[in-house]
Structures are given as structure tokens and as C-alpha cells.
Specification:
- The chain has two helices and no strands.
- The mean pLDDT is about 80.
- By secondary structure, the protein is mainly α.
- It is rod-shaped.
- About 0% of the residues are buried.
- The protein has helices spanning about 20-35, 40-75.
- The protein is about 60% helix and about 0% strand.
Length: about 90
């Protein structure tokens, strides 16, 4: 069943005194009928956005791993500590 074909929406559309319920359901049905505003189109767009965010996080993670490995390599290297060794001299 298509969303726009749903008979009862539960928004007060069957209450004669609540004219906004019928108006809202009519608007929702017209949105559901439009291709660019269909549930499928919205979910596809959402899926694309989530995929883009995931890809951004993957790239950031990969860059952080490379930077971390480079930093760890520098710390293990004997060059940075050369000349910084302080011998203990008894006083």
C-alpha cells in the first residue's frame, strides 16, 4: 500500500470541526504523490548523505592513523633525544 493511498491517517481528518486535519492529510497525500518528495526519494537521499558522512570519517581516520604512525616513528628515533640526555652528577 502506498502512503498516499492510506485511508485513515489519525490526524483528525474525520472530524468535521477539525478542518486542519483534512487539510493536512490532503497536503501529505500530494507530497506522497510527488516523485521528488516520495518516501523512496527521501530515504535514497538520506542513504547518500549517511554514505558521504561515513566516507568522511574513514578518510579522517586514515589520516589520523598515518599521522600517529609518523609521530610514533619520530619518538622511537634516536635523533630527537640526542643531546637531551642529562647525566646525573652527584652534588
Amino acid at each position: 500500500m502506498e502512503i498516499g493511498d492510506q485511508e485513515h491517517w489519525g490526524l483528525g481528518e474525520r472530524q468535521a470541526r477539525l478542518i486542519s486535519g483534512g487539510t493536512l492529510v490532503a497536503r501529505l497525500r500530494s507530497v506522497a504523490a510527488a516523485n521528488e518528495n516520495s518516501v523512496t526519494a527521501v530515504l535514497d537521499a538520506h542513504s547518500q548523505i549517511v554514505g558521504d558522512i561515513r566516507q568522511s570519517f574513514r578518510v579522517a581516520r586514515d589520516l589520523m592513523v598515518v599521522a600517529d604512525e609518523q609521530w610514533a616513528g619520530r619518538l622511537r628515533s634516536p635523533e630527537p633525544s640526542a643531546g637531551q640526555h642529562i647525566s646525573s652528577v652527584p652534588v
